[in-house]
Each structure stands twice: as C-alpha cells, then as structure tokens.
Amino acid sequence: MQRAFMGKLLEIAEKDSNVIEILADSGSNLDELFRRNFPGRLLNFGIAEQNAIGVSAGMAMSGFVPFVFLQGAFIAYRAMEFIRDDLCFHNANVKLIGQGSGLALSGLGPSHHTTEDIGVLRNLPGLCIISPATPIQVRECTEYIYGINGPCYMRIGMNGEHEYFDDDYSLPSCGFDIFGSGKKILIISTGSILEEVVPASDILNNHGIETTVINLFQIKPFNSSALLNKIEELSPEYIVTVEEHQVGSGIGNMLSDAIERAGKTYSIISIGFDDTFAKGYNETQHNVRVENEIDAEGIARRVENGYSKGI
Amino acid sequence: MQNCDDIILKNLRKRIFVTSVKRGAVHWASAYSSLEILYSLYVRGVLKIDKENLNDAARDRFVLSKGHAAIGMYAVMEYVGILEENEMETFLTPGTRLSAEPCKRDLPWVEASSGSLGHGLPIGLGMALSQKIKGSERKTYVLVGDGECQEGSVWEAAFAASAHKADNLTVILDCNGLQKMNSTEETMNTVNWRAKWEAFGWQVDEVDGHDVNALCRILGESNQKDRPRIVIAHTVKGHGVPTMENDASWHFKIPKKKEMQSICRELEITEEL
Predict the structure, then answer these.
(1) Is the pLDDT of residue B1 over 70?
(2) Model ipTM?
(3) A260 in the Ramachandran plot: left (φ > 0), alpha (ψ -120 to 50) or beta?
(4) Does residue A197 surpass a pLDDT of 80?
(5) Choosing among A49, A53, A62, A89, which should be mutated to test the B contact, i.e. which has the most B CBs within 10 A?
(6) What is the DSSP secondary structure assignment for residue B254, as one 8-state letter?
C-alpha cells in the first residue's frame, strides 16, 4: 500500500509544485524517491508529531498542500489536539497518511496498533477519513483526497496487501465496494482486513451460507443513506461488521447508529476489539489476526456460530 | 511630558479594561504585558502588511500564540482600523466576531486561531518555512508567553526551527514571570531563558518589553544567517496598573469594588463600571 501511495504522490507532485511531503522520522526508501525527484519539497521534522502537524497547518495556510506521512497511531493519539485545532478548525488543506493501520505493525504490540484511530478522529468536525483496502484502492484514494480542499486522514496498511481490484478500477461515489450477492449474510469491513473477509465469505458460501461483502472505504463523511439503501436491497438475515478496530467507536458503532436513526431493525454481529487491546505478538499481521480470531477462519467460525445459535 | 505613544497606549489600556469588565471577562493583565509588543508590530509598523489588502501573499505574518492576549490585539486592531470602528463594543456579545481567544474563522486577518497553548510556534514555523521555499523576503513573528513555554510542542518547534535554519522566524517571548497560579519559576523552574534557547541554536536578544522604541528597533533587525531568533521581552503582567502589576491572581480575577476604584483611578477611567 505504501508503494501504491507513493507512486500516486509522485505523479501528483510532478503536476503540482505546491505538493510537499512532511515526515516525523517516519519515512522509508520510497520517501527518498520523493526527496530525489523534488529537492527541497520533503521536510523531516524528527520524532515530534505535534510539531509536524502544526507546521503542516502553517504551510497549508501559505498555499502548500502537505502530505504528512506518519504512523497512524502517532497521528491519531499523540497529535490529536493539533489535528483538531490546527487542521480542522482552520480547514487546512493537509493530507494525513497514517501507515500501519489496524494490526499492520503486528509484532510491536498495542503501542503501534492503530485500533482506535477511527474512533478518535471521526469525532473531529470537517475531517475526511478514508480507509482503503488494497493497493489499487490506495492509489485511487490518494488522488481522491488530493482533490478535496480540506483536512483528510487516510489510513493504510504496509504488508503487501492482497489486491481485489483491476488496474482500471475507479472509486465508486457511494463510498463502498460490493463483492458477491449472497442473501443470508452481509459482511461489512474496512481497511486491509478485506483480505481476511473475502476468504471468510468463501468459506461461508462453501458451507451454504450465502454471503455478500461490502468494503466501506469512506468513513467520513459517512454515506449512510447509500449504505442503508444497499442493505435494504440485499435484506440479509444478518449483518456482520469486521474491523481491526474497537467495535465501540469504529464501523460497527457507525452502522448500528445509522440503522437506529433510520428506525430500522437488523441483527448485527460486530467483530473487532471489544474494549480490549489486541492479544499476541508476532512478526506477521495474519498470525496476530489468528490469535484474535479476526483471520478468515476465525471470522467464518464466529459468523457460523452466531448464525447457528440464531443470535 | 508624555509622548504620543504613551497617550495612545494609555487609551488602549482603558479600552481593554472597560470592555473586559463590561463582559465579565478576564485576562487583561496578560494583554497589558503584551500591549507595547502588539503596538510596535501593528501601529509603529514593524510588521510589513498592507492594511488595504491583508491577504497579500507578500506580507509579514504574525501569530498570537498566547491567545488570551486577544483583547489587547483587538484594541490595537480597532485603533489601526482593521477592526470596524467601535467593534470592541461587541466583544463576547451574540453575533460578535470577537472571542476571548482569536478565531480566524470570524476574523480572516488573524493568521492562526489560538487558545490552546503551544500551537502558535509550530504553525508560525510552517509559515516561515513556506516563505523561504517561495523565495519571499518577508518574515514571520510569533508571540509566546513564558508560561506557555512549559508546553512540549514549543520545544519540538524550537528544535525544528533551528534544524531547518528558519532565519526569517522571530519569536517574541512575553516574559512576565507569572502564570495562572503562581510565578513561572516556582511552578516549573523556568529560569535562564537565554541559555535554554541558545542551547537549541537560536539567536537570543533581550529587550524591555514596554519600551516601544527599543522594541521597534530590535524587532526590525534581521536574524543572523541560518538562525531563528527569539527576542526575550522583559515585561510586567498588568503593566500600567500598579494594583495589578506582578500579581498572578489578576490572570483571572474579577475586581471587587475597592479594587475597581483603585484600577479606575490608575487608568483615569471616569465612567461608571
């Protein structure tokens, strides 16, 4: 996903000399490419995230379009007030790119897990939040947030995520993608965990539980009416939300809230972290997902259990 | 004999006090310690701005990081005509543009909204670096409080400004030695500002923060090459009103009847408050 982001950023920066990149000691070889291609337009502000966000606000107010590339955990938690006051209250045209979304930094433990970022940031007025699932979707979302005149946060993974889209994919305006057309179960997920959710739906389909998957990439503004219309059209027996995030403040909560406000009733199973940090430390994101039962088999098992018990 | 600056400043002090008291607002003591600094920037013309075109890209920038001195800035801006005539009367009334901390949303000439401390210097650094990248000769000034310098983000920006050679950035430190609850020294041992900032690679100048001519002279100077600069302005919280001077409690106190009488006498306010 980082490669897909940088590929698009280089393209944008080539066309728009106001585009700059800001790091807080947070880059990789890919960012060196940006430095080489655009001398003087990559600024590293060291291990100091609050200042990096504040500086980006000042540069946006001076006509630049800063892309701030940091670890999502350090953006959302450490620098939250700077995002609120400096970016949102000024409607500063800054693009925050949070790497390592969900459990991508699996072995580093909860300090580096970005499992509360949506909850923390979706409360902030005027902040657009995007959570793409695959490298091609990251590419398209990078172009999309560049086109928005205001603060945006895009959370991306970093572990060579599985691709589900063709090269000619373009973002649907409704804010989500649909896979399959099963009537019994609708799984809604966000971010790179799609690579567990699609195989989980295959397992369920093989077991005769027909499943549809929705990948919700636009978190905020949340196009709840389009999603509710689609849910009504599918009228599944169960809705399952899956996220590498706290269910109490992520898409599980967003969906329940939207359904309640619309006066609808659906049975919902929320899969994610329920007021707890992730268990386990492992070099691969998949193995930590296994430990927390949010890998393909774990998801399928939990859905089948709920389904058979009639929860 | 009082000179012209002194007469104007005395009237601005009255304006600040009367406006604040009418609205039950506080923070005028903080505004008084910064008043000559704001006056030097906007009235005496240290700041290169075009009052007819405040959006001009080729302007000096000023960020009021200690946002609670907003009422002092409003008094100065009303005097120079950037605020509407008598707009101070609307302070904290329904529909006003004038908050107790400055908001860019309502006042576009405010370079950056402030209120939470420790935000103005990072934003100002972003503005200064933008000016440098664009090849502008213009400068950025940021006014911070000495209590505010207890915020860690101030020092993140201090590192960064030095590393990025922001030699068009001048921080003005309103060094009044007091914060809300106590002296800055007793609260956080904030002594020896010169050594602290020099250790971060900054050029350090010092000035009497109530001497307008000295302020204009030093703020008008250019920085040493490649170095950000801090001007430590030695000030008195509540300056110009002996009843309030150097007393931390005036950070947020509403005067009682007797205190009100003393303050009004000292400010030569004759109207009934």
Answers:
(1) no
(2) 0.94
(3) alpha
(4) yes
(5) A62
(6) P
